[in-house]
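Quick one before lunch.
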Amino acid sequence: MLTTRPRGTNDILPGEVEKWQFLQQLTGQVCREYGYGEIRTPIFEHTELFTRGVGETTDIVEKEMYTFTDRGDRSVTLRPEGTASTVRAYVENKLHALPQPLKFYYIGPMFRYDRPQAGRYRQFHQFGVEVFGSNDPAIDAEVIAMAMDIYQRIGLKKLELHLNSVGCPACRPVLRQKLQEYFKPHLENLCPNCQGRYERNPLRILDCKSEKCQEFGKDAPTTLDVLCPDCSSHFEAVKGYLDEVGISYTINNRLVRGLDYYTRTAFEIMTRDIGAQSSIGGGGRYNGLIEECGGPATPGIGFALGLERILLTAERQGIVFPVSRGPQVFIATVGSGVARKAFGLLQNLRQQGITAEQDYLDRSLKAQMKYAGKLAARFVIILGEEEFDRGVAVVRDMQAGEQQEVALGELVSFIKHKG
Ligand code: HAM
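Model of the histidyl-adenosine monophosphate complex:
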């Protein structure tokens, strides 16, 4: 146990972590361009936030939450997603008093106790955005366009954007009744979970992973059959904006998403390159959630992208990420007499913005040169006692395979100029 990480978690090691840094930088840049500010909320929240926010009949709340009682006897849960926490922060900090809409983004770990497999983990990472305070269909189109923009800048190809409208509290009762009528003859054959969902939330049956339930749900009525005029015109307007910017989508009237808070627009981005876990991002509108969480009636919309799945898709599609480079300078020393001087030079170089490294294992000069090569250092500064006394050092350009003497006082400008 001591040397094994918990199932469904990952170590992100040097070599791999640069890809994560790249994604963080890229998403941060896109957020600046679209006017989204970062929000950081706690990794754990009161359990009630998620049971209420995400919904009692969802897989997440029914089977996947990391919930525990803390030492003060309170039930807390590691966040399974970021929307509920962002809503809680918005309400708690009275951000509705600020000019709306407010646009947030977050990036960080989420926790779901699911069966791990490629692309599905118990600790995974999401980049997400949330917009509060606008019901304008142009905002729906903006968040969708933003997600697609991010995938495009990463270089991902062959993605499918699935789009649906899941209606609002005005259309839901009609759908609920139609679904119950439809599923009634099959009730005994549905999985035990869905038998419970039949009364509490029959729409959830359409999202069940069991093959049997999927088969029975094949011809079930869908939200698009029952949209009220307001939801219908909202949906048309969203499609119009997407058409305007040339974003293609597939209308998928079976798309209900795995969380209960959605109203109107729901979308998911799929890839066929990572097997069963094909959703690399999803989101939608949630016009009732802020009120449900104790705030004033405020519309909201957002999405979250799964970073592990993005990286997996990128790998399968052969996308090469910028890799970390070796240090600009490696300082090799000859003789112990220059150790202190070398250390001083090392610090000086770093303080001048030059990435620099030295040997800490008392290697021979030959071994130091070999090590510098392994680190992929661009230059090696060879510091010997005799040269040092003359006020010079030998600088070897590892790329060109040439070396020359450079005055100690000129080293920084030499490296900056050549490197
Ligand atoms: P979600 O669809 O549950 O939505 O998750 C979003 C994305 O997170 C998925 O498309 C997937 O890429 C990734 N993901 C989910 N579960 C796992 C897992 N176990 N392992 C690896 N990746 C996973 C939400 O979480 C909503 N909060 C999105 C949203 C924001 N809706 C409105 N605003």
